[in-house]
Design goal:
Blueprint (H helix, E strand, L loop, with lengths): L4 H6 L20 H10 L3 H5 L2 H15 L4 E2 L15 E3 L3 E3 L6 H6 L6 H4 L2 H13 L5 E6 L1 H10 L7 H9 L1 H25 L3 E6 L7 H7 L1 H9 L8 E5 L6 H4 L6 E3 L6 H8 L4 E6 L8 H15 L5 E5 L9 H15 L2
Parallel strand pairs: 1-4, 4-5, 5-6, 6-7, 7-8, 8-9
Antiparallel strand pairs: 2-3
Helix pairs in contact: 2-4, 4-7, 8-10, 9-10, 10-12, 14-15, 15-16
C-alpha cells in the first residue's frame, strides 16, 4: 500500500478523501509566482532552467492550495531543444526551423544522456523530493509524441496543425521516422525523471483530440503505447491526458496508462462506465468554473463527486490547466470543497 492518497487513487485503492491537484497549478494566477518570476527576470524558459526558482514555484501551490500532489515546473517542449531545435517563447512556443523534410528529421539528435542534456530537470526534481519528503508526492511529466511533433512540424501553436497533418497523410514514412525519434527521446526523458525521483508521470496529449478516432488509432496510439511500454513503471503510475479525447475512450484506454485524464466535455460517470474498474481517472471540472461564485464552485465539485460515486481510483482535477486570471481564493476554495465533501 502507498502512503499518499494521490498514489493510492492512481492504483485504484480506497482513500479517506479524494485527492486533488490542478494542472498548471504553479503559474500566473498566483501573485507569489509572479513575484518569483519578476525577482529573477528573464524569460519563461529561463525560469524553467533555474532549479532554485523552478522548485520554489512548484512548492507554492502546495503551501497555498493544500493540493495533494506537486508537479515539476517545466514545459513539455524543453527536451526538444537538445534534439537540435531552438526554442523561444514569444509568449507562446516558437521553433525557428520547423521539421518539414527528411533531412530535417535526419538532423534531429536523440541524446543518450537526458540527465546531462537537460541537467536542470533532475536538479529541480531532487530539490522538490527533499522539500516534499513525507508531505506530498511529486509528478514528473512530458508531452505525448504526437503533441510534441505538432509543435516541431508547425513551428508554433495552431488551431489545426495543417503542416503536421499534411506530412502525416501524404508521407507516412517521414511522419513515422519523426515519431520514432520523438518517442525514443520522450522515453529517455521520462525515465530520467523517474530515475531522479518522480513518483508518478503524466503524459500530456494536448492535441491528441484533433484527429478523428480512426486517425488517432493509426497515427497516435501506437507511439503512445510504445512510449508507455518503455517506461520504468515499477511502482510508478502513468497518467495519460488526451484533451478532446472523451469521444474515443475505448481507444485511449488501450494506451496502457494506469490513469486517464478527462476534460470537461465528457460526463465523468459515463466515462468510468466505458473505461471499467481497472483504470483510474483524473478530472474534470471546467476551468472557467473557477470564475464563478463560491457556492456555484461547491455545487460543481459535488456534481463531479456524485458522478464518480463511491468508485475508488479517482483524482479530482480541472479538465485542463487553470487559467491565469482565476482568483487564487477560488482555487483554494475548490480544493477545500473536494476534501470536505469527499471525507469519509
Amino acid at each position: 500500500m502507498t502512503e499518499y492518497n494521490f498514489l493510492k487513487a492512481c492504483w485504484g485503492q480506497s482513500v479517506d478523501q479524494v485527492p486533488v491537484w490542478l494542472m498548471r497549478q504553479a503559474g500566473r494566477y498566483l501573485p507569489q509566482y509572479k513575484a518569483v518570476r519578476a525577482q529573477g527576470g528573464g524569460t519563461f524558459l529561463d525560469l524553467c532552467k533555474d532549479p532554485a526558482r523552478a522548485a520554489e514555484v512548484s512548492i507554492q501551490p502546495i503551501d497555498i492550495l493544500n493540493a495533494d500532489a506537486a508537479i515539476l515546473f517545466s514545459d513539455i517542449l524543453t527536451p526538444i531543444e537538445p534534439m537540435g531545435m531552438k526554442l523561444d517563447f514569444v509568449p507562446g512556443p516558437v521553433f525557428e526551423n520547423p521539421v518539414r523534410t527528411s533531412a530535417d528529421v535526419d538532423a534531429l539528435v536523440v541524446p543518450e544522456d537526458m540527465a546531462a542534456a537537460v541537467s536542470y530537470v533532475p536538479a529541480i526534481i531532487k530539490r522538490l523530493r527533499l522539500a516534499f519528503a513525507g508531505r506530498v508526492p511529486l509528478i514528473g511529466f512530458g508531452g505525448a509524441p504526437f503533441t510534441l511533433a505538432c509543435y516541431m512540424v508547425e513551428g508554433k501553436g495552431s488551431k489545426d496543425f495543417a503542416s503536421l497533418k499534411q506530412m502525416m497523410y501524404s508521407d507516412f514514412p517521414l511522419y513515422d521516422a519523426l515519431m520514432q525519434k520523438v518517442t525514443e527521446m520522450d522515453r529517455r526523458y521520462l525515465n530520467m525523471q523517474i530515475d531522479s525521483g518522480a513518483q508518478a508521470i503524466q503524459i500530456f496529449d494536448t492535441w491528441g483530440g484533433i484527429l478523428a478516432p480512426h486517425d488517432y488509432e493509426r497515427y497516435i496510439l501506437p507511439y503512445v503505447k510504445l512510449l508507455i511500454d518503455g517506461l520504468n513503471r515499477d511502482g510508478i503510475p502513468v497518467i495519460y491526458f488526451v484533451k478532446g479525447g472523451g469521444g474515443m475512450l475505448d481507444l485511449v484506454k488501450q494506451s496502457g496508462a494506469d490513469v486517464l485524464g478527462l476534460d470537461w466535455h465528457v460526463n465523468l460517470g459515463k466515462a468510468r462506465d466505458i473505461l471499467g474498474p481497472d483504470i483510474a481517472v483524473q478530472g474534470n471540472l471546467d476551468p472557467t468554473v473557477l470564475y464563478a461564485p463560491k457556492d456555484y464552485i461547491e455545487k460543481e465539485v459535488q456534481r463531479i463527486l456524485d458522478e464518480n460515486g463511491d468508485r475508488p481510483g479517482f483524482i479530482f482535477n480541472l479538465g485542463h490547466g487553470i487559467l491565469p486570471t482565476v482568483p487564487p481564493e477560488n482555487a483554494i476554495h475548490m480544493v477545500e470543497c473536494v476534501h470536505r465533501l469527499s471525507q469519509k
